[in-house]
Design a protein that fits this description.
The protein is an alpha/beta fold. The protein has helices at 12-23, 49-56, 60-65, 88-91, 103-114, 156-162, 225-228, 236-243, 272-275, 284-301, 304-320, 322-330, 335-348, 354-361, 363-369; strands at 4-8, 27-32, 43-46, 72-76, 82-87, 99-102, 119-122, 126-130, 133-136, 141-143, 146-149, 169-181, 190-196, 199-204, 212-219, 250-257, 263-264, 267-269. This is FAD-dependent oxidoreductase.
């Protein structure tokens, strides 16, 4: 009899887990709260061990064909004067093997891999857990051998199985907002960043998109962008105006999820639901891909949830450590720090070896991204008996 698995959340972790579980012989159902697959979204990076995962899925070339092709990054001051520029990969902390693409494009590729083999139920959510029995928002219920929460930092699965979110969420003291905006600067696969005291704003364009994406990253708990960015220079007022009417505005606290264990009985967590490292880590997508691969492989080869945690936890925790340090470099606290940073960048911009300096600064990210040995789980079929 084939083991049944319910995956809660059609996220990157959820869809990639569905692929690997089906490949290992499990019967998989995915429930997703949204009415349809989520398109668009912010740009994400696939690097390190995650490159090996997507290569084993046979989609590496496809994903590289969907790259954002952001070719340049620039830092400007309040008057809009260029302080420093660099190539897009250096600006984004990527090596040439890494792939940067839009989150929605990655989700679509993963869904297309699984759509004919996995049952997807959109517009559905779980409301209750009782052992192996799951209650749904639609009023129905069903039993599954395993239930996996891949439903993000605000995971309902985690709340039902482990307790309130506040027990596991560790806020970093910053907020983030992302949305689509008109490309009024005429950017062509470019990213431009403005840094002010306690607040950073950036805008970029990607290959094949007529609009642009704006991101606001700032310190403190104040949710009002207009209040936080009042008096900011450059194009920030125009970006705020566009954000006010953006249909896809996403805003949240910068947070991490830290748990002593990721499983309880037949329930386990994967991706941000288990170990959210925060967007500042630059590793959320890669962690999701690697975590899905390891979880499915351990379930298929007898390691179970214990094997999954034993293999994945050191990798997740090492990458979590990137978040707090990175966000402090992305958002500078005082005007004095901003001025010092701008002077340093201006000097570095004229150094012939600036790319090597920046690559050295990104070394901890790349070491963390590769800090796991991935087994070849093969096509084990231990899900059936």
């Amino acid at each position: 009899m084939t083991s049944s698995v319910l995956i809660v959340g059609g996220s990157i972790a959820g869809t990639s887990l569905a692929y690997w579980l089906h490949r290992h012989g499990f019967a998989v159902t995915v429930v997703e709260r949204a009415a349809a697959l989520r398109d668009g979204g912010y740009k994400v990076d696939i690097r390190g061990a995650a490159i090996d995962v997507v290569s084993r899925m046979g989609i590496l070339d496809t994903l590289r064909s969907l790259r954002t092709e952001v070719r340049a990054g620039t830092v400007v001051d309040g008057s809009g004067k260029r302080v420093a520029s660099m190539d897009g990969d250096t600006f984004g902390g990527r090596t040439h093997g890494d792939a940067e693409l839009l989150r929605g494009d990655l989700t679509r590729v993963l869904y297309d891999l699984t759509g004919n083999d996995v049952e997807y139920r959109f517009g559905e959510a779980i409301t209750a857990l009782d052992g192996n029995r799951v209650g749904f928002a639609s009023g129905s219920s069903a039993s599954y051998d395993l239930i996996i929460g891949a439903d993000g930092v605000h995971s309902t699965t985690r709340a039902l199985a482990f307790g309130p979110e506040e027990r596991f969420r560790h806020d970093l003291g910053y907020r983030i907002a992302i949305c689509s905006v008109p490309n009024h600067l005429g950017l062509d696969r470019e990213e431009v960043t403005y840094v002010g005291p306690g607040r950073t704003a950036l805008v970029y364009s990607t290959a094949g998109s007529s609009d642009a994406k704006a991101m606001f990253l700032y310190a403190g708990a104040e949710p009002s962008l207009r209040d936080v960015y009042a008096g900011s220079g450059w194009e920030v007022p125009a970006l705020l105006e566009a954000a006010g009417s953006a249909p896809d505005l996403y805003a949240d606290v910068m947070t991490q999820v830290r748990m002593d264990r990721w499983s309880a009985g037949p329930v386990a967590l994967v991706g941000d639901a288990a170990w959210c490292a925060s967007p500042a880590s630059g590793q959320g997508t890669s962690l999701a891909l690697v975590g899905a691969y390891v979880l499915a492989g351990e379930l298929a080869t007898g390691g179970g949830f214990a094997g999954y945690e034993r293999r994945m936890r050191p990798f997740a925790e090492r990458n979590q450590k990137l978040g707090p340090a990175n966000v402090k470099r992305m958002v500078l606290s005082t005007e004095r720090q901003v001025r010092a940073s701008m002077r340093m960048l201006a000097v570095m911009d004229h150094l012939p070896f600036k790319d090597r300096l920046l690559a050295a600064a990104m070394a901890p990210l790349h070491k963390a991204a590769n800090a796991i040995d991935l087994p070849e789980y093969g096509a084990a079929r231990s899900a059936s008996s």
